[in-house]
Amino acid sequence: GDSVTQMEGPVTLSEEAFLTINCTYTATGYPSLFWYVQYPGEGLQLLLKATKADDKGSNKGFEATYRKETTSFHLEKGSVQVSDSAVYFCALTSGSRLTFGEGTQLTVNP
Amino acid sequence: DAGVIQSPRHEVTEMGQEVTLRCKPISGHNSLFWYRQTMMRGLELLIYFNNNVPIDDSGMPEDRFSAKMPNASFSTLKIQPSEPRDSAVYFCASSPGQGASSGKQYFGPGTRLTVT
Fold first, then answer.
1. Cβ–Cβ below 8 Å for B91 and A102
2. Contact in structure between B107 and B93 (CB atoms under 8 Å)
3. For chain A, percent of residues with pLDDT exceeding 90
4. A11: number of CA atoms within 13 Å, CB side?
5. Cross-chain CB nearest to A49 (options B4, B48, B103)
6. Local mean pLDDT, 10-residue blocks, chain B (116 residues)
7. Residue B96 has what pLDDT?
8. Largest Cα–Cα distance in chain A?
9. What is the pLDDT of residue A5?
10. Contacts of A91 in chain B (CB under 8 A)
11. What is the mean pLDDT of chain A?
12. SS3 letters across chain B
């Protein structure tokens, strides 16, 4: 079945550092890909999405490019802030379900 | 817009008791999802409704779990009898699209359930 694999966390960075969180997927067909973010004590929020190969999703300084050849959707941000501390989930949809990765905890220190 | 509303936010109960979690989706959304989040298993989809009809309940762990959506503005997830391994955060999410195909789901704040 469909699955999403994220880099293991937790990830700890200093403010203004470059962020990469790796995400690879296995799916039949051509899924849409997503990054969701979960701030402490809250539900998940959609951060960005890409619906076809080579699409780039972006929001709040975060970017991810749908790479069909490497089945990847890595999340990047050039300069993280303390307020970016959260858990980040990669996900794909194929049909009626959203399949989430295990989540990566990011902590940004001042 | 009030967002997805869940109640209660926290529930502590003893093993064997019945637990009912409630969800009010965003008005106008026609898809509703129940998820369970634990450290061990991550985020799991339990059941998905479209236009109040259960479409996919393959994630419901066992017969102790049941979910209903009597109308477009209300859904419940019931556990009877509850067990300690049911302890988790339960999220409700709604979507304006059909199923998860649009990918944009709006999550509630969750209900943290502790079964002792």
1. no
2. yes
3. 82
4. 24
5. B103
6. 91 97 95 93 91 91 94 97 96 80 84 98
7. 86
8. 43
9. 94
10. 103
11. 93
12. CCCCEEECCEEEECCCCCEEEEEECCCCCCEEEEEEEECCCEEEEEEEEECCEEEECCCCCCCCEEEEEEECCEEEEEECCCCHHHCEEEEEEEECCCCCCCCCCEECCCEEEEEC
| Residue B24 β-bridge partners | B5
Tokens of A94: 């194929």
Question: How many A×B Cβ pairs under 8 Å?
Answer: 58
Whole-angstrom distance, CA of residue B44 vs CA of residue B35: 5
Q: What residue has token string 């869940």? A: B6
d(CA A50, CA B80): 40
Dump pLDDT digits (tens) for A20-69.
Answer: 999 999 998 889 999 999 999 889 999 999 999 999 999 999 999 999 99
